[in-house]
Write a structure and sequence with these properties.
- The protein is α/β, with parallel strands linked by helices.
- It has a domain of 312 residues: ABC transporter transmembrane region fold, CATH 1.20.1560.10.
- It has 22 helices and ten strands.
- Helix 3 runs antiparallel to helix 5, helix 7 packs antiparallel against helix 9 and helix 9 runs antiparallel to helix 10.
- The longest helix has 53 residues.
Length: 588
């Protein structure tokens, strides 16, 4: 009943269609009862008493009855299918919207393939449950009642003999249906794993081919595909066992009716018309009874997808604030910020305090795992500090509206995310209101315009999933153009030039320097050219800030930065002298 109530709650927004379908189901069941009822006059009046007026009227009545039944069955089927499709569409919209508003930390511990499977496969699994299971529940239960009424009217003792076996059959069907809950759960887990394998294989096809692991991935896929097949066949066996049980029950019921009804006809207790009218009602009754017995199996199969979907919908979304931030005026301040990832015992950030003035360029350096990326991920509230505060212009960002907070920030990261869309739309992602001319100016400022125009379709070139048609440097320049187009007051560069060769960096460094001059910039730097130009360098180690100062000051101290310089920056001594970034300056 809990699963059934959950299904009804999903359909509730479309209750008008379901109620109308319920009303039509009563009409269809009434027509089915009329068919059984007409058997008596067809036999007694036409065949036995040879009533010729009835011989003319009865065929017309039968044509009309079956026509009306077909029309109303079509309408009922359409309404239930429509309600189920709308429910699935609404559920997918809810899932997508909910998932997109979950904290970033959720995605670090959840497979994208599993999430895709829930949005597509689990939601789709409910379609057949709603359209078929609820349809059968509405129309077949009403049909059983109406046909039972005809049977009891014709001969109550025969009716009792015929249907006395049904409760036992329904009980057995319910017991078998319970097994489907676990089978369905395992099947949904299997299809989720298959979706994960497909998603990883298609996005990682270059690595698979580079290491010649096609056969290994194929075997992995075949194993999970085979497991999914086995669970589906278990489901088929249980479902069809219910059908087999109902066939046996139908045979027993009709056999008893024929035996006892035959005795009554011989004894003259009932007419042939009465008997065959009753027999028609019973035969018609057992068909919906078989379908109704499978309703519980359908509801049990829905348990797993419903549970998996509700698990996602029950996860708390990002906590949005109510305070709008109009502009950035003076200072960003990290005040004793500490943070630990759920899967880690040690702190990623340990009482970090840092103040960044408007217009300042701050470079954050340190060995891998030092907390650099975690620190800048706190600013757009991708993660929430366990302790401490982050303030913009003296106000805690914890109560800021996320949209207004993130509108202040432009992010260019090492892991460039581009979409399977045109170059124009990927750059315009930075500002949906930007004109084509503004997009082109941003591309020029990022030194991307020339290579874009080398494509036959120019800015309308579709770049493939994650921008696979572009080189690493080209993807990075599109990402920078996107940030330029957004034109934010605070710029966050997470190793933004680490994917570039020297010639690409020479072009982009000009654009970046023009971009950085007019805004506050926090940069995780692996390039000496960026570090040297920073107003301040922050050195992080094991989640703490251990040194701050300019390049010259930190070198003079001979501390951690000096060691880092020898390990990481030595060999980058040739400083890239920027030319005037005329295009970037013009745009800005």
């Amino acid at each position: 009943m809990k699963d059934f109530r959950t299904l009804l709650s999903l359909v509730r927004p479309f209750w008008k269609r379901v109620v109308l379908a319920g009303v039509i189901s009563l009409i269809v069941s009434g027509i089915n009862a009329a068919i059984a009822w007409l058997v008596k006059p067809a036999l007694d009046d036409v065949l036995i008493q040879k009533n010729f007026s009835m011989m003319i009227l009865l065929p017309v009545a039968i044509i009309l009855i079956f026509t009306f039944r077909g029309v109303f069955t079509f309408i009922h089927e359409y309404l239930m299918r429509s309600a189920s499709q709308k429910m699935v569409m609404d559920l997918r919209n809810r899932l997508y919207d909910h998932i997109m508003h979950l904290p970033v930390g959720f995605f670090s511990k959840s497979s994208s393939g599993a999430l895709i499977s829930k949005v597509i496969n689990d939601a789709n699994a409910l379609d057949s449950v709603i359209s078929l299971t609820l349809k059968d529940l509405l129309i077949e239960s009403a049909t059983i009642i109406s046909l039972a009424a005809v049977a009891f009217w014709r001969r109550w003792d025969l009716a009792l003999i015929a249907i006395v076996v049904l409760p036992g059959a329904f009980y057995g069907a319910a017991r078998l249906g319970k097994n489907l809950k676990q089978i369905s759960k395992r099947a949904q887990q299997n299809i989720s794993v298959i979706t994960e394998i497909l998603q990883e294989s298609f996005t990682g096809v270059r690595i698979i081919k580079a290491f010649s692991r096609e056969q290994m991935k194929l075997e992995h896929f075949k194993k999970n595909n085979r497991d999914y097949y086995r669970e589906n066949m278990r489901s088929v066996r249980v479902t069809e066992l219910v059908g087999l049980m109902m066939e046996v029950v139908t045979g027993l019921g009709i056999a008893f009716v024929l035996w006892y009804g035959g005795k009554l006809i011989v004894a003259g207790a009932i007419t042939i018309g009465d008997f065959f009218s009753f027999l028609t009602a019973i035969i018609l009754l057992f068909t919906p009874a078989r379908r109704l017995a499978k309703v519980n199996a359908g509801i049990q199969k829905a348990h797993a997808p419903v549970q998996r979907i509700m698990e996602v919908l029950s996860i708390s979304t990002e906590k949005d604030g109510h305070r709008e931030i109009g502009e950035f005026r003076s200072e960003i301040r990290f005040d004793r910020v500490s943070f630990s990832y759920p899967s880690s015992r040690s702190r990623a950030l340990n009482e970090v305090s840092l103040s960044i003035k408007k217009g300042e360029l701050v470079a954050v350096v340190g060995m891998s795992g030092g907390g650099k990326t975690t620190l800048i991920s706190m600013l757009p509230r991708f993660y929430i500090p366990d302790e401490g505060r982050i303030l913009i212009d003296g106000a805690d960002i914890s109560d800021a509206a996320l949209k207004s907070l993130r509108s202040l920030l432009g992010l260019v990261s090492q892991d460039v995310i581009l979409f399977n869309d045109t170059l124009m739309e990927n750059i315009r992602f930075g500002s949906r209101r930007a004109t084509a001319e503004q997009v082109i100016e941003a591309a020029k400022a990022a030194y991307a315009h020339d290579f874009i125009m080398e494509f036959p379709e120019g800015y309308e070139t579709v770049i493939g999933e994650r921008g696979l048609r572009l080189s690493g440097g080209q993807r990075q320049r599109i990402s920078i153009a996107r940030a330029i187009l957004k034109n934010p007051p605070i710029l966050v560069l997470d190793e933004a030039t680490s994917s570039l060769d020297t010639s690409s960096e020479m072009m982009i460094q000009n654009a970046l320097e023009g971009l950085m001059k007019s805004r506050t910039t926090i940069v995780i730097a692996h390039r000496l050219s960026t570090v040297r130009k920073a107003d301040r360098i922050v050195v992080m180690e094991k989640g703490s800030i251990i040194e701050t100062g300019t390049h010259a000051e930190l070198q003079a101290r001979g501390g951690t930065y000096q060691k880092l310089y020898e390990l990481q920056f030595r060999g980058q001594e040739t400083v890239i002298e920027p030319e005037k970034a005329d295009i970037a300056q013009k745009y800005l």
